[in-house]
């Protein structure tokens, strides 16, 4: 016996196997990034997800900031047209624009606020006013905005919308999975361990629930819980527990026929302790695996409902909502479809790969 | 076997009945009604409408009436498509959905099966990794992403296929919807077949076949593949029921007149009869395909006996 | 010796595992002459099966073979599958240990045999079917015309193995490789199958390579034997020489590992366990009931061992569970005058520590996520809750020491132990409670003979030290003879015969017992008797006829 004295538990060896799976590790890293992006992202991002830039509706993704040089003159003209001023000339030096205007009637110095209201300028001030007040020169800082992945149909920064969507998706997934886990494990373990007639009855209930069309069920939940997203997804969790209950029940049933459970019975170990010491720990592997695969299912479901317009409501948003908007605008603004789709796909991909990796790690027969 | 099938169908009647009942009452206790959308209907008008559609009767009587009509094949008038009965709507839409669904199913079985077998035979090779990755992709990417992206790429940018629309009998408009529907199923079938084949290939009886010098075509085709079909059959049953009854996403993005969208539209607009109609159709499909799975299982696996 | 038809030189097999390559066969030389019967003997893990799998190109995917294996001069190692397929199934055929899983469960057995005929002998479908019927008749399967279309699950274990043999003979092979062909079968069936193979060999004249762990079979069946251990050949020679004058210690140890001797009779004492007319009935649907155990009575005194012997399905394991009130039973079981039959879990709990059980499967009987220390101490948490954790641990370590395991192992998990060690842990779990009686359900059946001998010695020592009473259940008559004071022979849920061990084995009263004993101890005689009269059963449709 040259090995270390402390044993290597099945869980530890499973994790070691997982560490050898490069796809799973990469997925775990991606997921960690998503979690950070979801929690921290909306707080530190350049733009708030609610801010509307009326001047920048559906601008394409770009690394260079807006406004572009050629947009400044029309932008200033458009802003000042409301004050009935005509822009003669705009010169830009560094971040400062100098705007000369004239008008038919005397110029009120307070018209600078029209410039401030535009998304292009900030801190506008009067430099000089002609004696007759019919022409003037303004100076204003050019507000530089970068829209890494473009803006949406309302002129909101798409990246900020995607970040908040990630937060919503992860939150909903955690909530619904948690609910499904608790109900499923308790229900399945009880049915499997008690067995016999009770098991039969409990599983019959599950069967009937199964034969209800799933989308119907969810849409009814939407109808009932209306627009409360949290409640709705607790409810979704309450639907998704069916699979979990079946898995746990099957495992429990087969475990309770194993000789180590019989041995515990022969020792006189009470049923509760058998469940706690011998059954639950051995069910945990499949349950963890199923959970990692349930998370993407829930995210997908949430996106699907949002896609149909049944999920998250404005000003909050979700990847499904963004994709639906993108699909509507794909001809003239394809980035609105591409980036949210990529964000959702990568997230689901990472979750699925991690789930598969975990399954292989816990049940290494395949490899 | 025939007796078993008939008994199973008879046994399914209570299931369908429970589903119908649950759907009926759940729909009705949900807040709102079919005429809420039309703004400010006067009280009298609203009452008249309700009376005309039998909505002012007590709920239990409406339920009994509905059951009675259903037994005679009458699913009632639609509330949102005012000029149509639910029966007409479903009769028009079902063939479209079934056509698309069965093509997708066929594609899934053939392509998915081939990919799965190839991957299993070349386990851990580049081909295998490719298949596994593509399959994960297919399972992962939701159809509401695939559909618009395909439509954008092939319909708009490349302009080789119609981005949407439907003409009965024409193949071109079917390509993108069928591919969208089939993609996730191809992926699942490929993974199932791969897994089951890997298990079958290491099983004792396949070792026997190899020990007896049978050519690879017999070892794989007869002894391994047949065992590997079992999980696919049990997966494809429910999947077929879902595919053949239409997909709201595919239908709304490609503009296809199937029955998938009726369900969502009906539920949102409280079109009670339309929702009930779709529920009945879906439930019947589920029951029938579960039966088909069981029968196919018995054909493939002699250990399963029904009598 | 004439030129060998199969000649293996320096064959090595290694498997790629996550923990690096593992070499299972480490350079083996072997020659097999035409018509010869050679035994390859070894315990589990000796590489005896992998040796032939490698020669036949049947290694698992992670396995690689190096070296040489020539059949009539043709190198088999590295031969492309297409060329290899002309040899395997036609010139060299195999039968395997598990007749249930070795046949395709989804195809009729006749079709599987016909398939090999069509591939190798190029017969038409009709001819192949006719030949299949002849073959099934040749292996003495009753009613071959009907059996052709039977599926494997419709046949018994012995019948399935006959089908495998028919398949092996179909193309008139030169060599039949039999890989533990009777290990999964009951002794009486084993005797029939071995007699059949021996008979077919004399009639058809093929060489047989017999892979087995069972020295009984080697002695009865083979002329030459090769002893393997840990991937290497330990010793090789004539069966007579090896059995009478083994050169290697390992061979001597194997020979000595056959259970022998008898237990010294226990002094008479008042019984602690008394079972009257115990019955167990299982519902098998539609109101029908199967009597798994029917009207069995027994008494058990301290220091005494009652051996229960029977073939699979005889109800002996069910009886064990009924005695401990682990499943509902009729009749009455009394523990020291207290009737325990029908007590609830809670009512039964005070008696559990006195009545313990050890199971057959050392892999399934230990909870995989608990440490060995926790497993052994579990009973104490129920029956001695007043003990502190430290005291419990100390007692567990003491129990482990008593079964010959290092106390430091208490922190390890079951999957890190060998089968024999696990069985010791299971025994420690039982004796830590200081029981009065132990029910041992096939406690050594899953173990190699040499390990079995050690575990049996441990059980006898523990019995002597604590004056334990044993109910010892086994299908293995040699084991029962070595450990029991009294023997009960069971068949189909009933006791066929019972009495003192010596009387049962020396003067069995019933035909069934005699048959069992002959099959277990006198294989050579059975084979000799069958061979002198080969047409005792079945017809003489012969290979030569085609």
Automatic annotation (TrEMBL), chain A:
Q: Which GO terms describe its cellular component?
A: plasma membrane
Q: What's the protein's topology in the membrane?
A: Multi-pass membrane protein
**Which terms under GO biological process does the entry name?**
peptide transport; protein transport; transmembrane transport
Under InterPro entries, the record lists:
BP-dependent_transpt_permease, MetI-like, MetI-like_sf, OppC_N
- Which UniProt keywords are present, listed alphabetically? Cell inner membrane, Cell membrane, Membrane, Peptide transport, Protein transport, Transmembrane, Transmembrane helix, Transport
User: Which stretches are transmembrane?
Assistant: 23-46, 170-194, 214-239, 279-299, 336-355
Per UniProt, subcellular location reads as: Cell inner membrane; Cell membrane
Q: Which PROSITE patterns match?
A: ABC_TM1 (PS50928)
What coarse category fits the chief subcellular location reported for this protein? membrane
User: Which Gene3D superfamilies does the protein's record reference?
Assistant: MetI-like
Q: Which residue range or ranges hold the ABC transmembrane type-1 domain?
A: 166-355
| Family under the similarity heading | Belongs to the binding-protein-dependent transport system permease family. OppBC subfamily.
Q: What is this protein called?
A: Oligopeptide transport system permease protein OppC
Automatic annotation (TrEMBL), chain B:
Where would one find coiled-coil regions in this protein? none
BP GO terms, sorted: transmembrane transport
Of which family is this protein a member? Answer: Belongs to the binding-protein-dependent transport system permease family.
An example of a Gene Ontology cellular component annotation for this protein is: plasma membrane
Q: What is this protein called?
A: ABC transporter permease subunit
Instruction: Write out the entry's keywords from A to Z.
Output: Cell membrane, Membrane, Transmembrane, Transmembrane helix, Transport
TM region(s), chain numbering:
12-30, 98-118, 130-158, 170-193, 239-260, 272-300
InterPro entries, per the entry: BPD_transp_1_N, MetI-like, MetI-like_sf
Kindly list the organism's lineage. Answer: Bacteria, Pseudomonadati, Pseudomonadota, Alphaproteobacteria, Hyphomicrobiales
Q: Which domain of life is it from?
A: Bacteria
PROSITE patterns the record matches: ABC_TM1 (PS50928)
Signal peptide as annotated in the record: none
Where is the protein situated, by its record's location annotation?
Cell membrane
Q: What SUPFAM superfamilies is this protein classified in?
A: MetI-like (SSF161098)
Topological category with respect to the lipid bilayer: Multi-pass membrane protein
Automatic annotation (TrEMBL), chain C:
Top-rank taxon of the source lineage equals Bacteria
Spell out the subcellular localization from the entry: Cell inner membrane
GO process annotations (BP): peptide transport; transmembrane transport
Q: Which PROSITE patterns match?
A: ABC_TRANSPORTER_1, ABC_TRANSPORTER_2
Tell me which Gene3D superfamilies the record gives. Answer: P-loop containing nucleotide triphosphate hydrolases
Entry's family note: Belongs to the ABC transporter superfamily.
Which named protein is this? ABC transporter ATP-binding protein
